[in-house]
Design brief:
Layout: H1 6-19, E1 22-24, E2 36-38, H2 40-59, E3 64-67, H3 75-80, H4 83-86, E4 88-93, E5 100-102, E6 122-125, E7 129-131, E8 141-143, H5 149-154, H6 156-163, E9 169-178, E10 193-203, H7 208-226, E11 234-238, E12 250-258, E13 261-272, H8 274-279, E14 285-287, E15 292-294, E16 297-304, H9 305-316, E17 317-319, E18 324-326, E19 337-341, H10 347-361, E20 366-368, H11 374-384, E21 388-392, H12 394-399, E22 401-406, E23 412-416, H13 420-430
Parallel strand pairs: 3-9, 19-20, 19-21
Antiparallel strand pairs: 1-2, 4-5, 4-6, 7-8, 9-10, 10-16, 11-12, 12-13, 13-16, 14-15, 17-18, 21-22, 22-23
Helix pairs in contact: 2-9
The structure holds adenosine-5'-triphosphate (ATP).
Adenosine-5'-triphosphate binds at residues 147, 179, 181, 190-191, 194, 196, 264-267, 302, 304, 306-307.
Length: 431
């Protein structure tokens, strides 16, 4: 199938809208440049990704804890971190039509829209500003955080002292970030409001390379095992020294083959002790037993939530002869099971199906469908990635058996009602 085409992207965007994964934001007012809202199914998918990430990187490990910090922080944070001075992209403006572009994204000296002359490039700070409180003057300017990372550094001492973690250990956070991107676009790939899942992993300087390698393989495992991405679509890019961010000594970008090109999905950076040194006058790490006082060094695995969703959708989207299927990992699928009564007008079937539906709902997110014929219901669930469909028919009433149909193989199996939960759980985790 063509993975690299505008047509494929259009199809995915249309599926997202049609089935309630992602809608244009503020649509009834004409939208708001590149803002998107997650609908009922998109929200389930998003929550599944975030929960799985938290489980893998916080709950399953002894060396990780989490925080959930304020979005708006003291502006001194962004001065100390270097963001006020250097978090910018080069901006050019057309002298004729006044359209603005990121200078490093255009390859000619003329305006891509009207071919007019371009002005000199200026640095444009990407932090989104607002005023805190009723007075709109320079003293009340604050920034929406452009990354979740800084709160982890600022809270380092509080977290370390209360959790009593010893090096090496990490702090994770999931939350919104805002960047006044000059050229947002490509659906949810680049937006001005987005969500990140970030880890700051604190270690001793002498161990940074080990930690870097550890996180590189953890990120690979997350992409292929948890998100189920095809490893052929993922590429590691060692960012050249000249392009490294101001705080980084080594960065790897994990790129993904999106339909619109191979672009960054995640990043992994060695941030040295830059951040903690900026925020803390005295070394913030103290290990009384070992008699150590030091500035830990930092490895930062950084994951975009929205780019994860986009990669998952692109990877899972399959067109077959008669159907469109989202081959999502069962753990990611918005609904794990759909329940159908074979016939809508047979009350005993509907009642039994309702009973099974309510029973399954205690453990899974379950869909209900009694419209049209069974074939149509299967295709409708295939398109949103539901891995198992359960049909309640006359055998259910007579023998206590339901028919379970598998999304990927389309095979059907008879399963007794009492084994159903166990059957679904086993299949889900076998995948
Ligand atoms: P890019 O080069 O694409 O602008 P970046 O290198 O500036 O990204 P980071 O600062 O490393 O991105 O941010 C970490 C992660 O946050 C990225 O890998 C990406 O997944 C996500 N991210 C960054 N900017 C955006 C955005 N504008 N919209 C959606 N996700 C984003």
């Amino acid at each position: 199938m063509e993975k690299n085409s505008n047509q494929l992207m259009e199809k995915i965007i249309s599926l997202c809208k049609r089935r309630g994964f992602v809608f244009p934001g503020s649509e009834i007012y004409g939208g708001l440049a590149n803002s998107w809202d997650y609908g009922p199914l998109g929200t389930e998918l998003k929550n599944n990704i975030k929960q799985l990430w938290w489980k893998r990187f916080v709950h399953m490990r002894d060396d990780m804890v989490g925080i959930d910090a304020a979005l708006i922080m003291n502006p001194k944070v962004w001065e100390a971190s270097g963001h006020v001075a250097t978090f910018s992209d080069p901006l050019v403006e057309c002298k004729k039509c006044h359209h603005r572009f990121r200078a490093d994204y255009i390859d000619s000296k003329n305006c891509p829209d009207c071919k007019g002359d371009l002005m000199e490039a200026k640095q444009f700070n990407l932090m989104l500003r607002t005023f805190l409180g009723p007075v709109e003057d320079k003293d009340s300017i604050v920034y929406f955080r452009p990354e979740t990372a800084q709160a982890i550094f600022v809270d380092f001492k509080n977290v370390q002292e209360t959790s009593r973690k010893k090096l090496p250990f990490g702090i994770a956070q999931i939350g919104k970030a805002f960047r006044n991107e000059i050229t947002p676009g490509n659906f949810i790939f680049r937006t001005r409001e987005f969500e990140q899942m970030e880890i700051e992993y604190f270690t001793k300087e002498s161990l940074w390379e080990d930690s870097f390698e550890h996180w590189r393989s953890q990120m690979q495992a997350w992409m292929t095992n948890d998100l189920g991405l095809d490893k052929n679509n993922i590429h590691e890019l060692d960012v050249p020294k000249s392009e490294l961010a101001h705080y980084s000594k080594k960065t790897i970008d994990f790129e993904y083959d999106y339909p619109f090109g191979t672009k960054e999905l995640y990043g992994l950076a060695y941030r040295t002790d830059f951040d903690l040194k900026n925020h803390f006058k005295e070394a913030p790490y103290r290990d009384e037993e070992a008699g150590e006082v030091l500035y830990p060094h930092v490895i930062e695995p950084s994951f975009g939530v929205d780019r994860s969703i986009l990669a998952v959708l692109c990877d899972a989207y399959v067109e077959e002869k008669e159907r469109i299927v989202l081959k999502l990992k069962p753990q990611l699928a918005p609904y794990k099971v759909a329940v159908f009564p074979l016939l809508k007008n047979k009350s005993e079937l509907v009642e039994k199906a309702r009973e099974i539906y309510n029973h399954l709902k205690q453990d899974f997110v379950v869909a209900w469908d009694d419209r049209g014929n069974i074939g149509k219901r299967y295709y409708s669930q295939d398109e949103i990635g539901t891995p198992y469909c359960v049909t309640v028919d006359f055998d259910t009433l007579e023998k206590g058996e339901v028919t379970v149909r598998d999304r990927d193989t389309m095979k059907q199996e008879k399963v007794t009602m009492k084994d159903l939960k166990q059957y679904i759980t086993e299949k889900m985790y076998a995948n």
